Amino acid sequence: MNAATGYLDPQGHQRLVPAEQIVRLEGVSKTFAGRHGAPVTALEGIDLAVPQGSVLGVIGRSGAGKSTLIRLVNGLEKPSSGRVIVDGADIAALPEAALRHARRSIGMIFQHFNLLSSRTAADNIALPLEVAGFDKAAIKSRVGELLALVGLSDKHNRYPAELSGGQKQRVGIARALATNPKVLLSDEATSALDPETTRSILDLLARINAELGLTILLITHEMAVIRSIAREVAVIEGGRIVEKGNVFDVFTRPQHEVTRSFLADETGRALPAYVASRIQPEAVAGGQAILRIGFRGPHATDPVLARLARDLDIEANILAGSVDEIAGRPCGILVIGVPEASLGPTLTFLKQYGLDTEVLGHVA
Ligand SMILES: Nc1ncnc2c1ncn2[C@@H]1O[C@H](COP(=O)(O)OP(=O)(O)OP(=O)(O)O)[C@@H](O)[C@H]1O
């Protein structure tokens, strides 16, 4: 029997998940023959485990290797070395017929939905059931259940062209779930959607994960997606996993430069334009140092800046700030400016509180 591991769900409830890993990549590398014969290494030395019932997000920039990784998991590509195990089967070693069967336990959703335009919503959802040889009555009843699950019972007769992006993705999700897969692969499933629709699709995926216990492996280039749905994250860059762990830890204490740059992108967007356009790496005498402070843990709600002013007589300008929730736990980010001459004492003071502080740059 498998041991069980615990995690806190987004509502903060303790949940148990079996330690069984539904997807496992062991020392996986993938090299493509490049255009002029020069090989292109898309992935190198990937070790990744997705425990049953979890939501694991893989984040990376364009060209990092995300699509290749997901294509290896559903058997569309074979690794150049290493093993890809899905639900106990070594995917690359399966003969074609067995691979087709194994794919029934892997559902997939796509950025551009990949629906057949000549089929209604119901008939798109029915497709994998037809391929799997279900009889008409069973298909009709299963499609009805799936339409209800994704909130589209009233749209069963609509063609994709008559549906919004969010509705199309709901059809895509229902189709992916038709054969009761054990794992759902999501390839940038919300990248073509507006923020509000993204939110509703992520909520639906979170509900499916919680209610059906479906394991989700998603790839994205958007931190907000990881933040709102994943419990575990792997950061991929240049074909390698450069950081992985629980989302809260990775995003509140990033260890790798790439993870920091994903965070900095967000912070950068939050900075007022007059600061963002003037920030530079070198200190300027008489100018200000710009600091990013991460609030988490026991000091998340301490009035630190008031104490900085009272105890050290250092006045900080607040430039940007937000309080967010990562995996159901509050976490705040504050960007402040302090006089260059006060930078040293400010850093020492913030360190005493155990706050993560990063110098973003300097302005004159
Ligand atoms: N079939 C292929 N033949 C040659 N090179 C490939 C092939 N597929 C991917 N690559 C290369 O492998 C690397 C990783 O590509 P991949 O598509 O996995 O990245 P990605 O992170 O999904 O990027 P994006 O977000 O832009 O889709 C890139 O350098 C890409 O050019």
Automatic annotation (TrEMBL):
<comment type="similarity">
    <text>Belongs to the ABC transporter superfamily.</text>
</comment>
<keyword id="KW-1003">Cell membrane</keyword>
<dbReference type="GO" id="GO:0006865">
    <property type="term" value="P:amino acid transport"/>
</dbReference>
<dbReference type="InterPro" id="IPR017871">
    <property type="entry name" value="ABC_transporter-like_CS"/>
</dbReference>
<feature type="domain" description="ABC transporter">
    <location>
        <begin position="23"/>
        <end position="263"/>
    </location>
</feature>
<keyword id="KW-0472">Membrane</keyword>
<keyword id="KW-0547">Nucleotide-binding</keyword>
<dbReference type="InterPro" id="IPR050086">
    <property type="entry name" value="MetN_ABC_transporter-like"/>
</dbReference>
<keyword id="KW-0067">ATP-binding</keyword>
<dbReference type="InterPro" id="IPR045865">
    <property type="entry name" value="ACT-like_dom_sf"/>
</dbReference>
<comment type="function">
    <text>Part of the ABC transporter FtsEX involved in cellular division. Important for assembly or stability of the septal ring.</text>
</comment>
<keyword id="KW-1278">Translocase</keyword>
<dbReference type="Pfam" id="PF00005">
    <property type="entry name" value="ABC_tran"/>
</dbReference>
<dbReference type="InterPro" id="IPR027417">
    <property type="entry name" value="P-loop_NTPase"/>
</dbReference>
<dbReference type="InterPro" id="IPR041701">
    <property type="entry name" value="MetN_ABC"/>
</dbReference>
<dbReference type="Pfam" id="PF09383">
    <property type="entry name" value="NIL"/>
</dbReference>
<dbReference type="GO" id="GO:0016887">
    <property type="term" value="F:ATP hydrolysis activity"/>
</dbReference>
<protein>
    <recommendedName>
        <fullName>Cell division ATP-binding protein FtsE</fullName>
    </recommendedName>
</protein>
<dbReference type="InterPro" id="IPR003593">
    <property type="entry name" value="AAA+_ATPase"/>
</dbReference>
<dbReference type="InterPro" id="IPR003439">
    <property type="entry name" value="ABC_transporter-like_ATP-bd"/>
</dbReference>
<dbReference type="InterPro" id="IPR018449">
    <property type="entry name" value="NIL_domain"/>
</dbReference>
<dbReference type="GO" id="GO:0005524">
    <property type="term" value="F:ATP binding"/>
</dbReference>
<keyword id="KW-0813">Transport</keyword>
<keyword id="KW-0029">Amino-acid transport</keyword>
<dbReference type="GO" id="GO:0005886">
    <property type="term" value="C:plasma membrane"/>
</dbReference>
